[in-house]
Design brief:
376 residues, alpha/beta, Isopropylmalate Dehydrogenase, 2 domains, ten-stranded mixed beta sheet, two-stranded antiparallel ribbon, binds 3-isopropylmalic acid, binds magnesium ion
Length: 376
């Protein structure tokens, strides 16, 4: 499907019809995507916005349909979009496929091709859900961490090889960073810290890795140009411990691709469920918004998935790509009110709350947004 040529650079961005590419993907991806689109349509109705949605195959379902996890038509649509919403990819069905042909390789190719080198993952512990956090109550309050994960380099994109001997008993994954790659993501992290509490913690393993030494040297040098940001460095092992012991000390965290992947799952656990955390991936072109969780194949088709990570990703899209701050907040605050009222998805249920499925959660959220709009 193609978008009509309706862009006009003279019209302010917030007034034009936004072209949103949907990549639902595999497992629970299609279910949570339907919930997010419902919420966006509700938001459009209430604020008089216009969105144009176009869905494309991506990941395992695209392998099944076309033989490729990122078909050319999907990539072309992504390049032409104003923003991209992505569900999740992968599943046991494609486990036997070689690494380079797996659904995940489509995700990595999308990140690399669109040069999505910044990945913002906000770990916000939401007050109504403190009881779900594995942290003691006094440690759970006031945790709002913005993880800035580098997304287009590191061991993810170095050479992966088996051999050279044909036995298959030796494997190598190469980790590479250049100064320029560190600078461009660090620039964003410094700016993010400046717009928040002015604290930036950069995470590395510079006592062991040369890429980390380059990372620390580069970030330290840039720190001199940001006098309003209090910069600290932590080794990744210590950072993992600090995140559990005293997470409220953190404001913005800057990490490499691999460390960021691991630590943001830890962060999601602190928030109470990995189903809650959204993300934005951006670079010079259109940004991709996706929850940080996987495709959860065992939950697919049962209406038990938590759509909140996907819905909050859509809210991030409104704010970050379209400048629609009020509209994003209307979604985020409605999510908090729904949680506070005791409506819970199966992964967030607690004694005294009511369990609802993915579809009903979206229904309740839309009803809450409509009622807030009437009272505005
Ligand atoms: C994530 C995921 C991906 C990653 C996988 C699916 C390739 O875990 O977005 O965190 O490792 O980056
Ligand atoms: Mg991950």
């Amino acid at each position: 499907m193609k978008f009509p040529e309706n862009s006009n650079s003279d019209i302010p961005m917030t007034n034009t019809k936004k072209k949103i590419v949907l990549l639902p993907g595999d497992g629970i991806g299609p279910e949570i995507m339907r919930a997010a689109v419902r919420v966006l349509k509700e938001c459009a109705k209430e604020f008089g916005l216009e969105f144009e949605f176009a869905e494309f195959p991506f990941g395992g379902c695209a392998i099944d349909a076309t033989g490729e996890p990122l078909p050319g038509e999907t990539l072309a649509a992504c390049r032409a979009a104003d923003a991209i919403l992505l569900g999740a990819v992968g599943g046991p069905k494609w486990d036997a496929v070689p690494l380079a042909k797996r659904p995940e390789s489509g995700l990595l190719a999308l990140r690399k091709t669109l040069q999505l080198y910044i990945n913002l993952r906000p770990i916000d512990l939401r007050a109504p859900l403190y009881g779900l956090s594995p942290l003691k109550a006094d440690r759970a309050s006031g945790v709002h961490i913005d993880f800035v994960r580098e997304l287009a380099g590191d061991i993810y994109f170095g050479e992966h090889r088996v051999g050279p001997d044909p036995s298959g008993e030796r494997a190598t994954d190469e980790a590479v960073y250049t100064t320029g790659e560190v600078e461009r993501v660090a620039k964003y992290a410094f700016a993010r810290a400046e717009s928040r509490k002015g604290r930036l913690v950069s995470i590395d393993k510079s006592n062991v890795l040369t890429t980390s030494q380059l990372w620390r040297r580069t970030v330290t040098r840039m720190g001199a140009d940001h006098p309003h940001v209090k910069l600290e460095h932590l080794y990744v092992d210590n950072a993992a411990m600090q995140l559990v012991l005293a997470p409220a000390q953190f404001d913005v965290i800057l990490t490499s691709n691999m460390f960021g992947d691991i630590l943001t799952d830890l962060g999601a656990a602190l928030a109470g469920s990995i189903g809650l955390i959204p993300s934005m991936s951006c670079g010079p072109g259109p940004s991709v918004y996706e929850p940080i969780h996987g495709s959860a194949p065992t939950l697919a088709g049962k209406d038990v998935a938590n759509p909140v990570g996907m819905i909050l990703s859509a809210a991030m899209m409104l704010r970050e790509s379209f400048g629609l701050k009020r509209e994003a907040e209307s979604i985020e605050s409605a999510v908090d009110r729904i949680f506070a009222s005791g409506i819970r998805t199966p992964d967030t249920v607690e004694p005294g709350t009511s369990k609802v499925g993915c579809v009903e959660f979206a229904d309740r959220l839309c009803a809450e947004m409509a009622s807030a709009a009437r009272n505005r």
